[in-house]
Amino acid sequence: MIAALRSATLLGVEGRPVTVEVHVANGLPAFAIVGLPDAACREARDRVRAAFLSSGLAWPMRRVTVNLAPSSMRKAGAGLDLAIAVGLLVATGEIDAPATRDCAFLGELGLDGSLRPVPGVLALVDAARAPAVVCPAASLAEARLVPGRRVLGARSLLEVLDGLTGRGAWPASAPHEPTGASGAPPPAPAPDLAGVRGQRVAKRALEVAASGAHHVLFVGPPGAGKTMLARCLPGLLPPLGGEDALEVARVRSAAGLPLPPPGELGRPPFRAPHHSCSPVALVGGGTTQLRPGELSLASGGVLFLDELGEFPASVLETLRQPLEDGAVLVSRARASARLPARVLLVAAANPCPCGEGTEPGACRCTPAMRERYARRLSAPFLDRFDLLVRVDRPSPADLLSSGDAEATTAVAARVARARTRAAERGVRANAQLSDARLAEFAVLSDDARGLLEARLAVGALSARGLARIRRVARTLADLAGAGDVLDAEHVAVALELRSARDVLLGTGRA
């Protein structure tokens, strides 16, 4: 007898529908899985057999063939275990086929017959193409984030059998139980900007970066406050909308990370990978299974690269295309996946290996050391930053000052107003304005045009840099409440907020 059930497998952060076909025939006892399963998927035969015996179900001493269609697509992970087990019960007559017609099945089986959650439930439920989806009870709250699906949770194979045969009701689960294996604690709040002493220019750059989604690089000696400034940035960003929050949840689910509590789903993510991470860990990929990297986990929020000069050049260069396109296409011989990469990049770097390159007479680096350090940050990579800001150590008066600095909430209110003005132009933030939109919404005054022409004439500004300067100037004008015409002051400030490039490259280009 043949049974066919619906399920799904994960590719990147997206689900792909899979039809699990189970054929039971006379012959020598055997169990074969075909259809390009990976090692974890192929081992389902042993898990399913043990789950049957532990649950008191009869194991068919016949020839069993499982086909995972479409056969040309590689299947990864243990998420097809439940579909294989239920298909075997249908093929042997334990369950009537009509009872499974409108259902899809997701979940990993334990040797004792229990159901365990699998990564990517959010994407798998969306791709299952069935009115109802049966999944592990531990993943029920996560699965219910997908609209338009009836989600049924079970703790074991026997509970699934009882629910499908009518011998028992589906177990009730709390609608807001923790997702994943144990749930994730709420993320720690971002530091308040009022705690940053001094750094007037750097804090202004942080406000501009949050308002226009402009990538920012802080350059300065150790102890200047670069890391603290970067960690304040998520608190300035507006909450994520429904679709954006769902995308963030989908990426976390595909990476196997528990989702935050329901009230925290709209908080922009913040990821800070160590400088020893590999290119695959940063942008995503893998050999047997395409997984999202830190770049995708930060999509919709902030990716912070501390000690930028310590990252290998090969790792940093992988970011150039994703920062432009807002997505990364990971291609392998058998499959390719498109991973989201819509991040606000903030980085911190020392001016040289010893960190004292901005202090006259304090640098202990040889010219060769500085040259090797500068080679890690190529000019094309630095061109992706809209703001390159020099951060000096605060003065003793600033450190000992007890005056009230501006709090994060006050700055976030101005950021929200600037984002609202950008939304009226049809973009989330001004960094997404195309060249055509710049010509419409970032008109240059005569003085501003003359200032830019002078920089272009001496080769101090590239074509990409020119567009980025206009976008930053547009954000500065929005924060000031100005109209569509950019004056010389807006352009001059935008140029000044990019001047730290000279410290890193030792050139006159902007």
How does this structure look, described?
The chain is of the alpha/beta class and 510 residues long. The protein has 2 domains: 164 residues, Ribosomal Protein S5, domain 2; 313 residues, Rossmann fold (3-Layer(aba) Sandwich). It is built from 22 helices and 18 strands. Strands 11-12-15-10-16 form a 5-stranded parallel sheet. α2 crosses α3, α19 packs parallel to α21 and α20 crosses α21. The longest helix has 18 residues.
What descriptors fit this protein?
510 residues; alpha/beta; Ribosomal Protein S5, domain 2; Rossmann fold; five-stranded parallel sheet; four-stranded mixed sheet; 22 helices; elongated
Task: Please outline the helices and strands.
Blueprint: E1 2-11, E2 14-25, E3 30-34, H1 39-42, H2 44-54, E4 63-69, H3 81-91, E5 103-105, E6 108-109, E7 115-116, H4 121-127, E8 132-136, H5 140-143, E9 150-154, H6 157-165, H7 200-212, E10 216-219, H8 226-232, H9 242-254, E11 270-271, H10 279-283, H11 294-297, E12 302-305, H12 313-317, H13 320-325, E13 327-331, E14 336-340, E15 344-349, H14 367-375, H15 379-382, E16 387-390, H16 396-400, H17 408-423, H18 435-441, E17 443-444, H19 446-457, H20 463-480, E18 485-486, H21 488-496, H22 501-505
Parallel strand pairs: 3-4, 5-8, 8-9, 10-15, 10-16, 11-12, 12-15, 17-18
Antiparallel strand pairs: 1-2, 2-4, 6-7, 13-14
Helix pairs in contact: 2-3, 7-17, 7-20, 19-21, 20-21
